[in-house]
Design brief:
Helix content of chain A: 40-55%
CATH topology of the largest domain in chain B: Lambda Exonuclease, Chain A
Strand order of the largest sheet of chain A: 1-9-8-7-6-3
Number of helices of chain A: 9
CATH architecture of the largest domain in chain A: Alpha-Beta Complex
Strand content of chain B: 15-25%
Strand order of the largest sheet of chain B: 1-2-3-4-5
Largest sheet of chain A: 6 strands, mixed
Strand content of chain A: 15-25%
Number of strands of chain A: 9
Oligomer: heterodimer
CATH class of the largest domain in chain B: Alpha Beta
Number of domains of chain A: 2
Number of strands of chain B: 5
Shape of chain A: globular
Structural class of chain A: alpha+beta
CATH topology of the largest domain in chain A: Lambda Exonuclease, Chain A
Number of domains of chain B: 2
CATH architecture of the largest domain in chain B: Alpha-Beta Complex
Shape of chain B: globular
Distance between the termini of chain A: 38 Å
Largest interface: A-B, 42 and 41 residues
Structural class of chain B: alpha+beta
Order of helices and strands of chain B: HHHHEEEHEEH
Largest sheet of chain B: 5 strands, mixed
Order of helices and strands of chain A: EHHEHHHHHEEEEEHEEH
CATH class of the largest domain in chain A: Alpha Beta
Amino acid sequence: MNLTQRRFTPEDLASLITTAPLTGGVIDTEQRRSFSTRLRSVPTVQSRRIDAWLVEQAGQDGRPFSWRPSTARRLLGTAAALRLQHQPRRAADVIREIIDEYLLRAISGQARFGSLGHWLSGLTPATLGLVVAEATNWCHLLLESQTIVGNLSMLCQADSYYNVSTAQTTLRGRRDMIVQAAEHRIVLRVRQGVPGKSAGAGLRTDLVIDALGDAEGRSASRFIGIWPDAGLALSVDGTMENLRAGARDIVRAAVVQRRQVLTPAA
Amino acid sequence: MARLRGLLVTTALTLLVHEQPFDDAFEDAMSAWCSNQADVSLLSAFAAADADVQARLRADVRSHISVLRDHLGTFASSWRPQTAVRTQVLLSGGALILRDDIDLMVGSVADPHAALSLLDITTAPLGERAERTLRYHALVQTLRSGVVPLRVAMFSTTTADCLVREVDAVVLQRAVGDLATHLSTTAVAA
């Protein structure tokens, strides 16, 4: 379960990419079934979503999610970065265009309550300005990170999701870039702040969800987390050992979450 | 209230850099800032303050923002302006953390002809500590990215003074000296 730490520089990233193992682990049908059974054994009355953040917090839910300019930035900024790759324009203009599309959907009644479009439709122009600013920052950070990672990287269109059937559980694995080699792939995720003590557990969670989201269960040969704010990059390899550890952490987070629900509030 | 004033002026900077027009500089900065806060303690303090304090803060913030608006100019998208950039550099295996907040960063560390410039906005007049602060910004940014910024600047929204420094090896060496002095002072005090 080795966690490799490097500086976030073009040379160090290139070294992490070129030294990645040529193969990754594979989650077969039996392992998938066993994992589902483990999650089903942790009952829930309502649907639950587990991601690397929850695992890093050891299953302890913090504040409930709410839309804010800072929580909307990744969705909007990534969408803008994807468009900017095909059509070089001002990032802020592209983000405004994307926001307009959300607002249009909200006005036409297609945005459900609590969605990003619904939230955006209730904002003042100044707050929308801050949403644009936050998303522009993310967009620039992502594109700059991609330049550092190198030309072989592609921005991801979406995160990886895996729905554990009959366990009312959706797993979400965040990912921002993929470096696709002939036989294997390397997945990268851009994070803000500094890596904490549980950063390795978070990376392993994203690694296993990415593998579960793959139809054939093939894991990335290396999963790299980059923290531009700290100038650091951490990576885990797609070994069976790491995949098992990631799966165990997910089940553990579900158990802690369940305990929290059962514990009466003081 | 001084902290809230600083936060609102920084929020206004973010909006101005991304060309968001203001109807009312204070109200717009306040509504934008509130939308990004999970912790409402500062807002509660403002709401609990008496009308005179609130009015003074309003006037103060409007004045600072107008100075900012008059002097900021526009930013080309190719400069990749980023606002409120937080940096945390871990040294000595995490035993020492250098934190820094840059109000505005233009340029890219990934560009081979990097011309990274950092701007710090302050609502106080530029004092003796401004030089040291600029050196610290340059050092932390260099440690983070491995790229030496081209220049660092500090702008006071009180006096409209701007201190600009080109960054070179001497500046970085002095920043290391400042840091070493600070650490030894802290160690002696402890």
